[in-house]
Amino acid sequence: MLSNHIQNGIETARLVWSRLPNSEEAEAEEELFARRSNGGAGVESLDYEVIENYAYREEQALRGKLWLWYYVCLKWLFALLIGIGTGLAAVFINLAVENFSGWKYAATFSIIQHSYFAGFLVYIIFNLGLVISSVFIVTHFAPAAAGSGIPEIKGYLNGVDTHGILLFRTLIGKIFGSIGSVGGGLALGKEGPLVHTGACIASLLGQGGSTKYHLSSRWLRIFESDRDRRDLVTCGCAAGVAAAFRAPVGGVLFALEEVTSWWRSQLMWRVFFTSAVVAVVVRSAMSWCKSGKCGHFGSGGFIIWDISGGQEDYSFQELLPMAIIGVIGGLLGALFNQLTLYITNWRRKYLHKKGNRVKIIEVCLISLITSVISFGLPLFRKCSPCPNSEVNPGIECPRPPGTDGNFVNFYCSDDKEYNDLATIFFNTQDDAIRNLFSAKTFHEYSAQSLLTFLVMFYSLAVVTFGTAVPAGQFVPGIMIGSTYGRLVGMFVVKFYKKLNVEEGTYALLGAASFLGGSMRMTVSLCVIMVEITNNLKLLPLIMLVLLISKAVGDFFNNGLYEEQAQLRGIPLLESRSKQYMRTMTAKEACKNQKVVYFSRIVKVADIVSILRSNKHNGFPVVDHGQNGETLVIGLILRSHLLVLLQSKVDFQNSPFPCDIRGISNRHNFSDFVKPVSSKGVSIEEIHLTEEELELYLDLAPFLNPSPYIVPEDMSLAKVYNLFRQLGLRHIFVVPRASRVIGLITRKDLLIEENDDSAIMELQSTSIATAR
Question: Where do the TM regions start and end (predicted)?
């Protein structure tokens, strides 16, 4: 019996391995992803509208209270699983990054005791190996794992599906690619990829796993609409931020402010619960690692920079330099967005079209340059004497190299000296930020070292952003902002000559200002900065610099994620319509369109011909009334037509209406659900004989009989608001109606409420039982 289990396990492993893409498949996938990322070709809208066809209504009629309770309980169970899964993924990524970095710095510092050149070679080889592993995973396994993934996820939650962003291979590529790129010392972070990781985990749970790799469960396949999957992905995004920053409240606000376009109170509860679960998982993992079981993992593993012992008060005179920090953050953030937009656009047009080999060479060159700068520049910096231990008893100087803390001894002639540039350059990003935020460390850094680091790291961050590796921009933005913030803090200390001014406080404000000037977040970023620094007293100052930096940045361009989404061809619908839409009508907006429609009884050959000649995803269906007039009876989706053509069970010989009662025996609602992890069926994959093409198909049982309709003279601004707020994919524009059969007011919608909370939540998602 044991041998049978072993044999079955081996066969399953072989099957999963056979499903892994080879290099040719990966190149084809990369070409498809690149083609769909340029100009929006192949980007598809999501169906957030409930298609109330006959199969849907039949299935709803069979569902009772037991199913409703199961549906709601499964939502909360999935919120729990998303939190646990995202938390464990964050723990794994941080453990791997910290241990790889620890091994790298331990080996390098042990070798440079004998030869700096040999240590330099080891440092370069270590970084190159990690970076090559990351770019190889992206180019040959998961092309959609490149970048932060936040623009694509934001597009998904806005109603736009970009192929490949939520696949199982993308999840694996994001996790292991982030380990290589961040551990390899590139000027990028792992926080953006963690948001994408949480979204992938949520999407895979929502569809019951990955069917391609035979890692699925049938009892989990209950969320069959894009609306339900959207809510799960929202939970995943919040979980990613909560795991990256250990900021559960910030994660909820990030999902609300930055990525999602639709929000409900029930969704707020589940998102908050998911973020709380992540916080518990991360806290438990850190407590377990404090016993020394996690290798080099230490306090630098997760972002938490406690500056509660820093500046406790501030004077009115300090508001001016703090406002200046906000202006600098807005200017540098807007410049960063514009430079990355130009370089990424050039990279996509000329460089990445040459194939994966060029992408690998590009990343390797950037890794070499980054390693040379981070190792070489501190060699030219003169070391400084350590502070007097009697005056500053809490300071350990020099700190052992490669460990968490300030005052790193690097290329110094005296044991009681430290290299201020190596303290922030030749270090992990988390430890470098902790050093910049540190309090009670007056004159630790010289202005020359901070300015050198600012220029070089800013340039590296601009060049690295957009390469074929998983890359986040939170931590590099914090490093850039904290550097010029500390510079301003040094001038404030020198100018005002006050002992209670902390340079670390100004570093924190600088970090907030750059992120606000680049990403244009306010509320969520403010809460995240408070949570990661554990200092509530600085909240008014953070709010001040965020408001100023966002206002300055908005004067020049859009936020980082909006710019990148536009570059990738993701058509985001903003919260407000454009000014010109108020003077345009719906008829004017669609006047150049040629409406392609089907009759209720249509020949199979005509369906195939129209689907091959058009790329539309929805078609009106018309029928003839008793007086011979043409009536619009509904909307049929392209995906539903492809399902009907592939199954062939609904073909009929006569051009007359079919018996609707027999539909439930041949189809259920799940047959028409679009798979998330595949491209679906295309018309080229369906093969029909000549006899089958001459048959007929009655579309009435499968169409949506109640699509949204607007009159032709409605302003385009009202159509825009209706389209975005309801998450629609199609709206019919029709002539003005000839008569009114009723008028619905508020009291008509206040139907008798049921005390059952499960049913109330279900009704809020438009999945209520049929009356």
Answer: 67-96, 116-138, 232-255, 267-286, 319-340, 360-380, 450-468, 474-493, 505-532, 538-556
The whole-angstrom separation of Cα 275 and Cα 361 is 39
Tokens for 292? 């020394």
Angle between helices 65-112 and 265-289 (to 10 degrees): 40
Rounded to an integer, what is the distance from CA 485 to the centroid of its chain? 28
**CA distance linking residue 15 with residue 213, whole number of Å:** 8
Spatial distance between the Cα atoms of 314 and 541, rounded to a whole number of angstroms: 9
Phi, psi of 745 (to 5 degrees): -115, -175
Q: DSSP string covering 58-125, please?
A: HHHHT--HHHHHHHHHHHHHHHHHHHHHHHHHHHHHHHHHHHHHHHHHHHHHHHHTT-HHHHHHHHHH
The 10 Å Cβ neighbour count of residue 181 is: 32
- Which residues, 6+ apart, have CB-to-CB distance to 643 below 8 Å? 671, 672, 681
At 549, list the tokens.
């930096």
Q: Compute CA distances 466 → 345, 362, 516, 551, 583, whole Å.
A: 9, 11, 20, 26, 39
* Domain 579-759 is found in CATH 3.10.580.10: yes
- Alpha carbon 97 to its chain centroid, in Å, reads 20
Distance CA 433, CA 455 (A): 16
pTM of the model: 0.86
Q: Tell me the backbone φ, ψ of residue 41, rounded to 5 degrees.
A: -65, 125
pLDDT in tens, 692-735: 899 999 888 888 888 899 998 999 999 999 888 888 888 999 88
| Alpha helix ranges (H) inside 305-385 | 319-346, 356-376
Nearest 5°: the CA angle 43, 574, 250 is 100
Q: What's the rounded Cα separation, in Å, for the pair 267 and 761? A: 10
What digits encode the pLDDT tens for the residues 347-370? 988 888 888 899 999 999 999 999
* Residue among 182, 177, 220 nearest 202 (CA): 220
- Separation between Cα atoms, residue 253 and residue 272, nearest integer Å: 9
Name the CA dihedral angle for 514, 571, 363, 166, rounded to a multiple of 10 degrees. Answer: 100
Tokens encoding 480: 């850039």
Chosen CATH of 316-353+382-568 out of 1.10.1840.10, 3.10.330.20, 1.10.3080.10, 3.40.50.150: 1.10.3080.10
